[in-house]
Each structure stands twice: as structure tokens, then as C-alpha cells.
């Protein structure tokens, strides 16, 4: 997460990446052979053989290695008694926790910040998909986010799967990749940019139709990367699979969590800086229906 910042640093670069990334993502992730259109005329006709042909004996072959499959390494549906804390998460020091609402959602309220108790350090080549279904606050004073944290102070590789300032703020909802934190936002100096660690951020509010913006409707948000690779892919889908957007970072190995320190998930709901707060809205909490982490390990060398 940026620290109370509405700026969209690096946005023009990102837009170029979004276009190229969309095509590749769709080609690799969204099209399966089973969904290809098929006309009746494409299917060869079958005739009954008039005589039985005995096939030649074929020597047995070794089975090809099974293709890697997605495996679930983390899942939380947030079922449980209202008012109780989520079992797989813990609050960060100095912050409020979050509680189950008794209806199957996690209520991430005022000044909450929690971290997944499990973390993951995975072999190079492992594909990782972080997903969540949630609805954002609709106020002008809350700043809520789901992010992947790579807790190396000297080498932060934060991925903002989705974050939102709500409908009353210009930044709205956005994606992000941070390699550095500017602790002096009000000094007029971009310290991160000065050391070649500019954030990539992209606003996505416009990708959602009126009436189903991120603070009006639950959406499924995904971030996907391969350990050791150089891009992070993003997408949002509704519960029926309809796509709101796809996006990708520019190629840069520093934007993908490494396998040196375990990465964790974080959910947070901060206040925007008092001078930036806008009065309005009713829903102060981010409500999270579920969070999942899936991995696909690289094919074993045979
Ligand atoms: Ca600064
Ligand atoms: Ca749920």
C-alpha cells in the first residue's frame, strides 16, 4: 500500500503494459481447448467398418509426466461466530484486528490491519495465484486493501491485489506494485524514483460498470506471478466469471516475490490523511467473503 497517497506514479508506463498483457493473459489463462467454438461441420463423420482390422501390436510406452495442476495452499471462507477473530490471521502490532460478521464475511473495519499467519516460500518456477472476493468501503475517509507482502525491509516487493479510496476520492480503486516506500510524501521529493524503484500503479474504477463498482458489489480479484519470473498479472471477475479487467506490470524481476523470505497476505483498512478525507458514504468496512492462495509447482524434471 502507498502511505496515504493519491498519486498515480508511473501510470503511463503501466497503461502500455496493460494492453500487451491483456492479450497474453487471455491467451494463456482464459482460453481452454474445451471452450473453443466448434461447428457440426468440423466434426468428421464416422462410418461403420466393413471388416475388422486387427491393430498391430504396439509396444508399451512410459507414461508422460502429469501436467502440473493448481493446488490450494490457503483458503478462508470466514465462516464462524459473529465477533470472533479469523483463525488463520493475526493483527499487526498497533492496529485493530478484524472479526467475522457471522454471515460468512470478514469485517475489516476502522484502523484494522491483519496478516495471514501462514506464509509461503516457494521454488523457482512455481506459479502463484492470490484471490479474494470482497466489497470495498464507500466512504471518502477509508483506504482499504488486499496486498501481498514480501517482508524484506531492504527488498520490499509489495503487490496490491486491489486497494480502494472509495468513490469520493479521485484515486478510486487501483492496483499496485511497490519496490520502495516514500516515507516523506509531503517533501516534494520522490525518493523511490530517485533510486530506480518507482511504483507501478493503475486506476481501475473505470473498468467497472455504474452500479457494480468495487464499493457497490462483490468482485473476485486475482494476482498471479511465477517465482523467479518478471511480471505480475491482475484480473477482476464477478461471481459469474465476467471479466472487468486484466493488467500486468512491466517486466521487472524485482516486482515478483522471491523465494528467500516467505510472502504473506495482508488485509487493511486505514484512514486517509485528515486533510484528504472527504465526508460521505455509509459503509466504512471492507467485507471479505473469502481469500485463497493456489500454487502450481513446476513440472518435475524426468
Ligand atoms: Ca518524498
Ligand atoms: Ca464467505
TrEMBL record:
Annotated stretches, region: Disordered: 42-64
Biased composition range(s): Low complexity: 44-56
InterPro entries tied to this protein: ConA-like_dom_sf (IPR013320)
Entry superkingdom: Bacteria
Protein name in UniProt: GH16 domain-containing protein
Source organism of this protein record: Nocardioides glacieisoli
Amino acid at each position: 500500500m502507498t502511505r496515504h497517497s493519491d498519486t498515480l506514479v508511473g501510470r503511463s508506463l503501466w497503461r502500455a503494459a496493460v494492453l500487451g498483457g491483456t492479450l497474453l493473459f487471455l491467451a494463456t489463462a482464459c482460453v481452454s481447448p474445451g471452450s473453443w467454438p466448434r461447428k457440426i461441420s468440423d466434426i468428421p463423420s464416422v462410418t461403420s467398418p466393413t471388416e475388422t482390422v486387427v491393430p498391430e501390436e504396439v509396444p508399451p510406452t512410459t507414461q508422460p509426466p502429469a501436467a502440473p495442476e493448481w493446488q490450494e495452499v490457503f483458503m478462508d471462507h470466514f465462516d464462524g461466530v459473529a465477533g470472533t477473530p479469523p483463525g488463520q490471521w493475526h493483527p499487526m502490532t498497533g492496529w485493530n484486528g478484524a472479526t467475522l460478521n457471522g454471515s460468512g464475511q470478514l469485517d475489516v473495519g476502522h484502523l484494522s490491519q491483519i496478516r495471514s499467519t501462514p506464509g509461503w516460500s516457494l521454488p523457482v518456477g512455481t506459479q502463484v495465484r492470490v484471490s479474494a472476493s470482497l466489497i470495498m468501503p464507500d466512504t471518502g475517509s477509508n483506504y482499504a486493501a488486499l496486498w501481498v507482502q514480501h517482508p524484506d525491509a531492504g527488498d520490499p516487493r509489495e503487490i496490491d491485489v486491489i486497494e480502494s479510496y472509495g468513490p469520493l476520492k479521485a484515486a478510486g480503486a487501483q492496483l499496485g506494485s511497490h519496490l520502495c516506500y516514500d516515507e516523506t510524501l509531503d517533501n516534494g521529493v520522490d525518493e523511490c524514483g530517485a533510486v530506480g524503484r518507482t511504483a507501478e500503479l493503475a486506476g481501475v474504477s473505470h473498468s467497472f460498470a455504474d452500479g457494480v463498482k468495487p464499493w457497490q458489489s462483490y468482485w473476485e480479484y486475482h494476482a498471479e506471478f511465477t517465482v523467479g519470473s518478471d511480471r505480475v498479472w491482475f484480473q477482476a471477475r464477478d461471481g459469474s466469471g465476467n471479466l472487468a479487467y486484466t493488467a500486468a506490470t512491466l517486466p521487472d524481476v524485482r516486482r515478483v516475490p522471491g523465494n528467500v523470505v516467505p510472502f504473506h497476505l495482508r488485509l487493511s483498512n486505514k484512514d486517509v490523511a485528515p486533510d484528504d478525507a472527504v465526508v460521505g458514504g455509509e459503509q466504512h468496512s471492507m467485507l471479505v467473503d473469502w481469500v485463497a492462495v493456489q500454487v502450481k509447482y513446476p513440472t518435475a524434471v524426468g
